[in-house]
Write a structure and sequence with these properties.
The chain is an alpha+beta fold. Helices cover 56% and strands 6% of the residues.
């Protein structure tokens, strides 16, 4: 068994960035295990029942799957549940569901919304992820027509907004919910803040992140959470 907990992950996965943001916020020691995207069904300790990242494995072998349940588990076990605690459970639950529904779906359009950005993104992904020699090149050049032509375009068409406008609208809606506070959680970030931050942070390795930096309130909140990370 491992001496420390393990996070089985993909570097570019938005759901993994959620968990990573929590881990860095509370400063929990852990091992990152970067999975080969083409071999996840064989490499993940949760397979074959669960074949998606992230997967959290405790030092005693206990396996937790799915990003939000993983975050709740880590907060409860290592942080006394303080980030999940709320004076208004209905508000917390509503906005957690909102972030998991809307912000998660907004990552694909901004990264793959045009054929140029899709090519840049897939090339970047091929360098960041733990691909094999052949699969790295296949993904870089064969992945972008799929991500752009099939997935991203359909989401942009369905929503009707340009990816940049979509993100600016989401950031406005989210930061307006703070009621004048610095964070959704008030004076300090809570789990909802870290979930939303993780989705936004997943775009940071790409040039498209510059489109988000133009949103003043969103970036003030983002930088404030970034300053709490223990990395």
């Amino acid at each position: 068994m491992a001496s420390t907990p393990q996070l089985h992950m993909l570097y570019t996965c938005p759901f993994c960035w959620k968990v990573r943001s929590l881990l860095e916020h509370i400063g929990l020691e852990h091992e990152k295990v970067q999975v080969n995207p083409m071999k996840a069904k064989k490499q993940l300790p949760s397979a074959p029942e669960w074949t998606k990242v992230p997967v959290w494995v405790e030092a005693n072998g206990e396996i937790i799957t799915d990003s939000t349940p993983i975050m709740k588990h880590i907060d409860a076990k290592y942080n006394g549940g303080s980030l999940w605690a709320s004076e208004d459970d209905a508000r917390r639950d509503k906005w957690l569901e909102w972030a998991d529904l809307h912000m998660s779906k907004a990552t694909i359009p901004i990264l793959y919304g045009s054929i140029t950005s899709a090519l840049k993104t897939t090339t970047r992904v091929s360098k960041l992820e733990n691909f094999g020699f052949i699969s790295k090149r296949l993904y870089a050049w064969a992945g972008f027509p799929i991500m752009w032509g099939i997935i991203a375009r359909s989401r942009v068409k369905k929503d009707g907004r340009k990816p940049k406008q979509l993100w600016h609208d989401l950031l406005t809606e989210f930061t307006d919910s703070f009621d004048g506070a610095e964070f959704f959680g008030g004076k300090a970030p809570d789990l909802v803040d870290l979930v939303a931050f993780g989705y936004m942070r997943s775009i940071s390795p790409y040039p498209q992140f510059s489109q988000l930096t133009e949103h003043a309130a969103g970036m003030a909140w983002y930088r404030a959470i970034e300053a709490t990370l223990k990395v």
